[in-house]
Amino acid sequence: MNKFADLEALVAVIEAGTFSAAGERLGVAKSVVSRRVSQLEKRLGSLLLHRTTRRLSLTDAGKNFYHRAVQILADIDEAEQSVASETTALRGVIKLAAPLSFGLNHLSDAITGFLKEHPAIELNLDLNDRNINLVEEGFDMAVRIGELEDSTMVARRIGRSHSVICASQSYLKRYGEPTHPEQLNQHIGLQYSNISYKQQWQFQTKAGKIIFGQPQIRARANNGEALAAAAIAGLGITSGPSFILGNAIKTGKLVSILNEYRPPSVGIFAVYPPGRLLPVRIKTLSDYLADRFGDNPYWDQDLNTYK
């Protein structure tokens, strides 16, 4: 009886989605994985998985056991790495979540570089703008931008995100360019729906005073790239992170406006589940991303708004 292998099989099935995929991940036959999970359930005297022809899902008991199994396996892996020599290559799985646009535009290149440096690391990357529950969904780390709502998470700032207000030349020619946030009530706005209206349209003077604009919202989207495309098409003014809008400003597709009243910057964070040791591979990835991004990120270079 190998309790470690049984735990590993259950976790692999949940993360891979099927017994076959779990077998491929573990390098064993599907039947071996199924037998390990079955003998684990028999030993515990409780059903851990609902099995149908279409999908697998955890029972209530399985959910509780799965979270503990993930932590146990992570602790064992960390213990092994902590006593390994400094020349030993990093290894293991990293399950990482990140916002879609930031992931596509900037994180993916950084991750590629990291994986080239550490070929024994296996990465599972989830790019999604929804607020993922790291503990319930078994993530090792998430990249989050802005104010952190969950105070139970352990966080480290790895960068800073600046926002810009911009519109196309065609829009400004038709409606004029506002010179103060109060004038936005005479303009059309494009709203990022994952944050509040007040959050998106707040500005900061050079003296540090916070003021608000009130544009008339014509379109809403939960993705910054979609709003950038709408702004380029002349549909309105948008406010968003420079890591999305900066390139369009540099190429002349968008014009940065209200530069004297730019929105407050926010942090880019690496966030980890609470209550467990931080594996060496996760800390190393965090260090790598902090070096890559930082408080003066490369995507703001040559962006006149921030000079």
Compile the SSE list and pairings.
Elements: H1 3-16, H2 19-26, H3 30-44, E1 49-51, E2 56-58, H4 60-83, E3 92-98, H5 100-117, E4 121-127, H6 134-137, E5 141-145, E6 154-161, E7 163-167, H7 169-175, E8 188-192, H8 197-200, E9 202-204, E10 210-212, E11 216-221, H9 224-232, E12 237-241, H10 242-250, E13 255-257, E14 266-272, H11 280-292
The oligomerization state is: single chain
Strand order of the largest sheet: 4-3-5-14-6
Helix content: 40-55%
**End-to-end C-alpha gap:** 64 Å
Enter the CATH topology name of the largest domain.
D-Maltodextrin-Binding Protein, domain 2
Mean pLDDT over the full residue set:
87
- What's the CATH class of the largest domain, please? Alpha Beta
Beta-strand content estimate: 15-25%
Largest sheet: 5 strands, mixed
Low-confidence stretches: none
The Cα radius of gyration reads 23 Å
CATH architecture annotation name of the largest domain: 3-Layer(aba) Sandwich
Tally of DSSP helical segments? 11
What does the model show?
Helices cover 41% and strands 23% of the residues. By secondary structure, the chain is an alpha/beta fold. It folds into three domains: 3-83, Winged helix-like DNA-binding domain superfamily/Winged helix DNA-binding domain (Arc Repressor Mutant, subunit A); 92-161 and 267-304, D-Maltodextrin-Binding Protein, domain 2 (3-Layer(aba) Sandwich); 163-264, Periplasmic binding protein-like II (D-Maltodextrin-Binding Protein, domain 2, 3-Layer(aba) Sandwich), CATH 3.40.190.10. The strands form four sheets. A five-stranded mixed beta sheet has the order 4-3-5-14-6, with helices on one face. A hairpin with a 4-residue loop joins strand 1 and strand 2 (56-58). Helix 1 (3-16) crosses helix 2, helix 2 packs across helix 3 (30-44) and helix 5 (100-117) crosses helix 11. The protein is elongated, with a radius of gyration of 23 Å.
